[in-house]
Write a structure and sequence with these properties.
mainly alpha; 6 strands; two-stranded antiparallel ribbon; four-stranded mixed sheet; 538 residues; 2 domains
C-alpha cells in the first residue's frame, strides 16, 4: 500500500490516525534494512551513536563558521557530543538529534554573511529537515528565531537579506506542508491542547539549572544552591561550563571582533531560558508563554517547556568556546611579547626572546584554558545510564501463529496487562505488546504516544489492576476477582473487540482466576500467553 496508511498506526484501535500523536521521524525508515538484518536493539544503538556523532560534527562546522579558533571549536564539538541534556533525555530518541537545529543555525550564519536565494533555499531545506527529524526542535527554534536577527545586524535594512528569508520560508513551508497537514487533520480527532496545570508542572524553575546529572567534582558542585525537592530536574551543565560561558560573555563583549557572535549566543540562551520556564515566568498579569500558547500554532500541544533547556546548554557551549579563546588571548598578552620594536627608520622589528620563553608562554596560554575545558568535561561526563534488558522477540511463537491463522487482519486485540498508571515505566508492557504487533500484524487497543485518545483513557481506567488511593483491601480484592468488569466487557463488545491476549507471568493470581470464566481460544505455555474470547463465557 506504500504510504497510503502512513498515519494509521495499529495502536489505540479502533482510533484512526494514531501515528500523528507522536513524532513521525520518517528518516528512520532508512534503518529498516538494518533492523531486518540484525535486530531492533542493534539498530537503535547505531542510530543513537550516529546522532551523538552528528551533534559533535555539526557543532564543529558551526564553530568554524563563527571563526572560533580550531582547538576551541573541537572542544565545543566534544561538549555537544556529551551535552548533559541530550544524555539525560536519551530515552526520547528524537531529542538526541541536536544536530538538526545546529545545522539550521549554521545555515543562518552562512546566509547573513552573503544573503542570496541559493542560501535561502539551503536554509529552507535545513529547517524542513529539522522538522522531519524532530518536530519539537523545529517548533522551539521558530520561537527562538528573534535571536537570529542579532546576526543580521545592518543587513536587516537590506532587501537582499529579506528576499533570502522569504525564499527560506517558502521552501520550508512547501516541504513540511504534507506532514503538517496530515498531523493537523488527525490531531483534530483528539483533544490535543495541553492543560495549563500540566504545562506548569513540566516547566523549569531557575534553580533547576543548578542540578546536573553527574557532579564529578564535589568542591565545584552547585546543586546545593538549587531546590532539593526538584533534584531530579537535571537542567544544569556544571559549574565549570557555567563559569567559562560567563567568561565568554565578558570576553566576547569586550572584543569588538567577537561581539556580534557573543550577543547572538547570549540572546539565544536567554530566550531559551525564559521559554523553558513556561507559564511560570510572569510579571504581574503578563505571562508571555501563556500568551503565546493561545495563538502560536503548535505551542498549545507542547506539554514540556523545560525541554527548551537544551538550547540554553547549547548557548552555554557556544559562549564557553568564546570564553576559552578569550582566556587564551588574555594569557598570551601576559606571557608573550605583543608589541614589536621600532628602529630609527620606523620599521617594525620582531622582538627577540629566548625560544624556551616563547614555548613556555605558548604552553601556558593554551594550557590554562585547557584546564578549564578538562574540568568541564569531567563534570559533564555522562553518569551510567539505567538500561533495561529487552525481552527476546519471538516472531514464530505459537500464539502469534494462532492469531495469524484464526483472526482477520483488522481484528482488534486487547493485550493484558494494560498500563497500570500514568508514569513512563507503567507503559513498558505496552511497548512489548506494540513490538509483538510487528509479528502478528493485528491492531491493538494498547499504545503509547505523546497524546492519548479519550476512549483509551477510559479503557485504561477500567483495566487498571493497581490499588487506587482510598480503595479498601476488600474492595480491591473484589475488583480483581471480577476483572474485567462488566462495564469493561461492554465497552469492548460495543467497539467490536472480542479477543483478549494475556501474558500470565505479569498478572495477579486473582485476575488469572477471574479470566478463566472466558472461553480459552489458545494457550502457548512456552511464551506464557493465553488468548481468550470475551464473547464466550463458560
Amino acid at each position: 500500500h506504500g504510504l497510503n496508511e502512513y498515519w494509521h498506526a495499529p495502536i489505540f484501535a479502533p482510533q484512526r490516525g494514531a501515528f500523528a500523536f507522536s513524532e513521525p521521524q520518517p528518516h528512520t525508515m532508512l534503518l529498516a534494512p538494518l533492523v531486518w538484518a540484525t535486530n531492533g536493539v542493534v539498530a537503535y544503538n547505531i542510530l543513537f551513536l550516529t546522532y551523538l556523532a552528528l551533534n559533535g560534527w555539526c557543532m564543529l562546522q558551526l564553530m568554524r563558521e563563527l571563526e572560533i579558533s580550531w582547538q576551541w571549536a573541537w572542544v565545543a564539538a566534544g561538549m555537544s557530543f556529551l551535552l548533559p541534556f541530550v544524555i539525560w533525555q536519551s530515552g526520547v530518541l528524537q531529542l538526541t538529534t541536536l544536530f538538526a537545529p545546529i545545522c539550521v543555525t549554521w545555515c543562518v550564519v552562512r546566509l547573513q554573511k552573503s544573503p542570496g536565494w541559493q542560501r535561502g533555499c539551503v536554509l529552507g531545506v535545513a529547517f524542513a529537515c529539522c522538522y522531519y527529524i524532530c518536530n519539537y526542535y523545529a517548533l522551539f527554534l521558530s520561537i527562538l528565531a528573534p535571536a537570529f536577527l542579532v546576526l543580521a545586524g545592518w543587513k536587516l535594512f537590506h532587501w537582499s537579506f529579506w528576499k533570502a528569508i522569504f525564499v527560506a520560508a517558502a521552501v520550508s513551508a512547501l516541504l513540511v506542508g504534507p506532514v503538517v497537514w496530515g498531523q493537523s487533520k488527525n490531531l483534530k480527532l483528539v483533544q490535543s491542547e495541553r492543560g495549563l496545570d500540566l504545562v506548569r508542572q513540566l516547566s523549569a524553575h531557575a534553580s533547576d539549572y543548578c542540578h546536573s546529572r553527574s557532579p564529578r567534582i564535589q568542591a565545584l558542585d552547585i546543586s546545593r544552591w538549587g531546590d532539593q525537592n526538584r533534584s531530579g530536574w537535571y537542567l544544569g551543565a556544571g559549574s565549570v561550563l557555567m563559569a567559562t560561558s560567563l567568561a565568554g560573555m565578558v570576553g566576547g563583549l569586550w572584543r569588538s571582533s567577537r561581539r556580534k557572535w557573543t550577543l547572538f549566543w547570549l540572546t539565544f540562551g536567554l530566550l531559551a531560558f525564559a521559554a523553558s520556564c513556561g507559564p511560570l515566568l510572569r510579571w504581574r498579569t503578563l505571562a508571555p508563554y501563556q500568551w503565546l500558547m493561545t495563538w502560536y500554532p503548535g505551542l498549545d500541544a507542547i506539554r514540556s517547556p523545560f525541554r527548551f533547556a537544551v538550547f540554553v546548554q547549547l548557548a552555554m557551549v557556544g559562549l564557553s568556546a568564546e570564553g576559552l579563546w578569550a582566556m587564551q588571548c588574555l594569557a598570551e598578552s601576559l606571557v608573550l611579547p605583543t608589541s614589536p620594536l621600532e628602529n630609527e627608520d620606523f620599521v617594525e622589528v620582531k622582538q627577540e626572546s629566548p625560544r624556551w620563553q616563547t614555548r613556555l608562554g605558548t604552553g601556558l596560554s593554551v594550557g590554562f584554558p585547557l584546564l578549564f575545558a578538562a574540568a568541564a568535561f569531567v563534570q559533564i561526563w555522562p553518569a551510567g545510564l539505567v538500561l533495561t534488558k529487552v525481552p527476546r522477540r519471538t516472531p514464530n511463537a505459537e500464539w502469534i501463529h494462532w492469531l495469524q491463522q484464526n483472526t482477520a487482519p483488522d481484528e482488534v486485540l486487547i493485550c493484558l496487562p494494560f498500563a497500570n498508571g500514568t508514569a513512563v515505566e507503567h507503559y513498558l508492557d505496552s511497548t512489548i505488546w506494540m513490538r509483538d504487533g510487528l509479528d502478528h500484524k493485528r491492531p491493538i487497543a494498547n499504545g503509547y504516544s505523546g497524546f492519548f485518545p479519550e476512549h483509551f483513557m477510559d479503557l485504561r481506567a477500567q483495566l487498571d489492576m493497581s490499588q487506587q488511593a482510598g480503595e479498601s483491601e476488600d474492595g480491591y480484592r473484589e475488583r480483581l476477582q471480577n476483572f474485567p468488569s462488566e462495564k469493561a466487557c461492554s465497552w469492548m463488545r460495543d467497539r467490536n473487540v472480542h479477543v483478549l491476549v494475556v501474558r500470565t507471568a505479569a498478572m495477579p493470581p486473582q485476575v488469572l482466576q477471574a479470566l478463566s470464566r472466558f472461553q480459552e481460544l489458545s494457550r502457548d505455555e512456552q511464551s506464557g500467553i493465553i488468548i481468550y474470547s470475551i464473547d464466550l463465557e463458560k
